[in-house]
UniProtKB/TrEMBL annotation, chain A:
Protein's recorded name: Electron transfer flavoprotein beta subunit
Domain Electron transfer flavoprotein alpha/beta-subunit N-terminal per the UniProt entry, residue ranges: 27-215
Domain of life: Bacteria
Keywords linked to the UniProt accession: Electron transport, Transport
Keyword set includes Transport: yes
Pfam families: ETF (PF01012)
UniProtKB/TrEMBL annotation, chain B:
Domain of life: Bacteria
CDD domains assigned: ETF_alpha (cd01715)
PANTHER family: ELECTRON TRANSFER FLAVOPROTEIN ALPHA, ELECTRON TRANSFER FLAVOPROTEIN SUBUNIT ALPHA, MITOCHONDRIAL
Cofactor(s) recorded in Swiss-Prot or TrEMBL: FAD
Protein species of origin: Lutibacter oceani
This protein's name: Electron transfer flavoprotein alpha subunit
């Protein structure tokens, strides 16, 4: 089997699973500064799937592609630590405010710059929106088949790849030709941890923008080891149409946001005492709610 | 008068049975269509669909597009996307609805990209309303309000799309209520010429094997649900909830945090990205009550919250709030139920 060229799409997301009380501003908008950021969990599964293919077929390369603000370079470094071969960041203020349609347009511009490729992988969905839309939208724009909710790669042949999909009511095994795009389900194996050696090797990886505030030592290191400089692509680098990116390219707009305040019921407040619990159970039985 | 553009629903079908979610969407679509004074349309692609309209027409569908062919079932992305985009281009609807299922979430984004339009996922409320665009100094009338919890369920967002139509949305199963509109509703049926639209390229992905089973879990119809959240603390502690659910003749459910933590299986998740339930009794143990979760259970007739945290938001929905540790409370509930039940 020939080695494959794999592009993994990854996103840095606010950690919405741990939303603290100060995550919302008094006016009901999200206080992004108060949320820590993480490697989107499903995208880590996608990275593992790619690395697993690389284990099986030596010579396979894994390129991590992310779009985001400068801070998202953390995603690329994390990918390096875990075994990715290359990382590319698409970063430009003008990409900001993108919905899934504009995001997929931008990512596809980046993927095309990385062509040729055999596989494009990404997580099924990102925890900050849960839409699961960007994968299929990219596949459409690349005009390649999509295989969503992939759990395991069963076979890798020269002309096709066989994957098992996790559906809401079962599983399905499909064979798809190259190139194709797969979105990876959270039920697939978790990503391997960092390699100590890779951490040593890549901990000084920086984007050009990050290097602007670097000291001389770091600049010298990057001169000696050019692989440490993370490519950073702007609107011009990927030849993106300004009408199709950021807010301009996003058909869906937020009209209003409401902080839901639950209106209080007249609840009976009970303790864990025997008397309280027995009283409640008796009432429930009496009202035929249970029993 | 100009004919109003339609509301169109993509219907899922397997073995000649139209999916529940699709019928729920037809009802939701009908309510939107009536507000707009528009026709309701539907499209369905599958095998052996003769007579399938009997499961669709009663929801008030004015026009049904049927793509019939053995190769169209089970669902595959490319042929269904090709047929759907053909119909959407011909019909030019204003609103298109999909189930937020394995099928709808695979198909709708592909179509949204093809048509270069907006798509809002997992809506819990659909409505019609206006919007004034300041930049254009223009009022857009009769837009789709696609309302969904966002940001881990801490807010509800109203998403609109005024300039890149159609307006598309997906909705989870169980969120919308299905209601027969008229048993004898007259529906125009349009046969789609499948073979002239599809080509070989649409079948490059091959389904090798398929194992579909209805999950043994039926949260949607359970009269009593005992649900646990992250606060349950461990898989072992969930055993208390399982015992109580079994005793009461109910089902066990979990919040997303409990599922993510591995305390309970994925198909038992309740909330916006899980199942929406309306049981007679909902017992929430160790669940704080993010909107993501409460969106899926707030219509329960009675809610009991067991929580260490007196400030847990879910307490505001509850009829009984028990301050305490579930390891103490639940065994006592079991004990006193056994003592008092007839």
């Amino acid at each position: 089997m020939r080695p494959l060229k794999i592009v993994v799409l990854a996103k840095q997301v606010p950690d919405t699973r741990h939303v603290g009380p100060d995550a919302m501003k008094p006016d009901g908008t999200v206080n992004r500064g108060k949320l820590s950021t993480v490697f989107n969990p499903d995208d880590l599964h996608a990275l593992e799937l790619a690395l697993n293919i690389k284990d099986r077929i030596p010579g396979t390369t894994v390129t991590l592609l992310t779009m985001g603000p400068q801070k998202a370079a953390d995603i690329i470094r994390e990918g390096y630590y875990r075994g990715a071969d290359y990382g590319v960041m698409i970063s430009d203020r003008r990409f900001g405010g993108a919905d899934t349609l504009a995001t997929s347009y931008t990512l596809v511009k980046g993927i095309k710059k990385l062509a040729p490729y055999d596989l494009v992988l990404g997580g099924r969905q990102a925890i900050d929106g849960d839409t699961a839309q960007v994968g299929p939208q990219c596949a459409d724009k690349l005009n390649i088949p999509q295989v969503t909710y992939v759990e395991e790669i069963l076979e890798i042949n020269d002309d096709k790849i066989v994957a098992r999909r996790r559906l809401s009511k079962g599983i399905e095994t499909v064979a798809a030709p190259y190139p194709c795009l797969m979105t990876v389900h959270g039920s697939s194996p978790a990503c391997r941890s960092r390699h100590a050696k890779k951490v040593m090797q890549y901990k000084y990886a920086r984007t050009k923008t990050e290097l602007r505030s670097a000291d001389e030592m770091l600049l010298l290191l990057h001169e000696k080891r050019p692989y440490l400089t993370i490519p950073e692509w702007s609107v011009e680098d990927i030849e993106a149409n300004l009408e199709k990116i950021g807010l301009n390219g996003s058909p869906t707009k937020v009209k209003s946001v409401e902080n839901i305040v639950l209106t209080a019921n007249e609840a009976k407040i009970l303790s864990e005492s025997d008397a309280d619990i027995e009283m409640m159970i008796k009432e429930l039985i009496e009202h035929h709610t249970i029993g | 008068m100009e004919k109003k553009k339609s509301v169109l629903v993509y219907c899922e079908v397997e073995n000649q049975k139209v999916a529940d979610i699709s019928q729920e969407l037809l009802s939701a679509g009908k309510r939107l269509a009536e507000k707009l004074g528009s026709p309701l349309e539907a499209m369905i692609f599958g095998a052996n669909l003769n007579g399938i309209e009997s499961q669709i027409a009663p929801y008030g569908v004015d026009k049904l597009f049927v793509g019939n062919g053995l190769k169209l079932e089970p669902y595959q992305t490319l042929p269904h996307a090709a047929l759907a985009s053909y119909i959407l281009n011909e019909e030019d609807p204003q609103i298109v609805l999909f189930g937020a299922t394995s099928v709808g979430r695979d198909l709708a984004p592909r179509l949204a990209s093809k048509l270069n339009c907006g798509l809002t996922a997992d809506c819990t409320i659909l409505d019609i309303g206006d919007h004034f665009v300041k930049k254009e100094k223009k009022e857009y009338k009769d837009l789709l309000y696609a309302i969904r919890p966002a940001f881990g369920g801490s807010i509800m967002a109203n998403i609109i799309n005024w300039d890149m139509h159609p307006q598309m949305a997906t909705v989870r199963e169980g969120v919308m209520k299905k209601e027969i509109f008229d048993e004898h509703y007259s529906t125009e049926i349009v046969e789609v010429d499948v073979n002239s639209i599809l080509n070989k390229e649409d079948f490059v992905v091959e389904i090798i094997d398929r194992e579909i089973k209805e999950s043994g879990v039926n949260l949607k119809d359970a009269p009593i649900i005992v649900a646990g959240g992250y606060g349950v603390g461990s898989k072992e502690n969930f055993d208390y909830l399982i015992e109580l659910a079994e005793l009461l003749g109910g089902e066990v459910g979990g919040s997303r945090a409990a599922v993510d933590a591995g305390f309970i299986e994925h198909d038992r998740q309740i909330g916006q990205t899980g199942t929406t339930v309306r049981p007679k009794l909902y017992i929430a143990a160790g669940i704080s009550g993010a909107i993501q979760h409460t969106a899926g259970m707030q219509d329960a007739s009675m809610i009991i919250s067991i929580n260490n945290d007196p400030e847990a938001p879910i307490n505001k929905l509850a009829d009984y709030v028990i301050h305490g540790d579930l390891g103490v409370v639940v065994p006592k509930m079991i004990k006193y139920y056994k003592q008092n039940a007839k």
